[in-house]
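Illustration 12: Glycosyl transferase.
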Amino acid sequence: MKVVVAHNRYRSELPSGENVIVDLEIAQLEAAGVTVLPFLRSSDDIPSLSAAQKVLLPISPIWAPSAQKDLARLLREQRPDVLHLHNPYPLLSPWVVRTAHAHGVPVVQTVHNYRQVCAPGLYFRDGHACHECRGRAFALPAIKHKCYRGSTAQSAIMATTLAVHRSTWRSVDRYIALTAAIADHLRDYGITDGQITVKPNAVEDPGPPPAAGDGLLFAARLSPEKGLGLLLDAWRRHPDGALGRLRIAGDGELRPLAEQVAAERADVEYLGPLDRMGVRAVLRTSAMIAVPSTWHDVLPTAIIEALANGRPVIGTNLGGIPYLIDNAGFAVPPTVDDWAAALPDALKAAPTLTDVARHRYLTTFHPDVVTGQLLAVYDSLPTRRP
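Figure caption equivalent — predicted structure in token form:
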């Protein structure tokens, strides 16, 4: 089987679980004997584009002519069985779906966010959940609130893109919804049940976990929607040292807050930005991780990593987080009172949940399980003709 994997990688200075997942999925498919034809673009390449390409850049979310030309050539030469799309923005465009169909190639898309409806893809604005664009033919509120990169112009382009490609998205042969919540999002958009398969992501098996460590780890982008402020406010409700130690890894706009609290309290340590292996090393010495997201986080890779390493999770009860945690931790409403009350019991119970967390990973998120599900999706696709 030949599969084109199409993905626009996010900028390297914005750590993205989605980039990691795509790379891992390619490796898992190749290990299963699939011929993978990567069709990748990176937002890091934008500064090095030619003058002519930069002129066309504003319309690339809608059409991206260079990408369509290159993809058409690849499809003609390689004649793949399927195109698997992840993120199309900004250098690929949803138009790749039309290009694939024009060459008789069925399309699968893994839905990592809410971008069919929401310009930034988060359903989150100004520190709170926002669904103003849901059900609208044109995402005017996104322009009003400058939801895409804080720019009226770029928000207008993205809102136009979402309107232009409604029919494109509805023509995708199969959607992979990472959770039942994403499946509901797609149905609300008009996607039929026959176009949706619910399948989570996987991470590679790090091997048997060590004995339970100590303390709580927060490892994520330090941005408001990831909930660092919520966690720190709840942590500060307890005397210094009463809960053990809290370690924070990551970078972003809330870094000054992390540094401030670490300077104020002996039980909080800010580790700075760590790469994936660095996070894993700290994770394996911790008792539990915290995922206090205040947006409807789809499928945080940090939770799957924690489960793989036998570490339970305390997270909010939003998006795909409760599904991921299941019985391997605690799903708590996103309020300071609820988190302050839950933290002592969660940390006390953490050492007893190591085996539960590891079992959750082995049965649901191991590559052998998830890759088999993905291959079954490919095999079930309808045959198309150019």
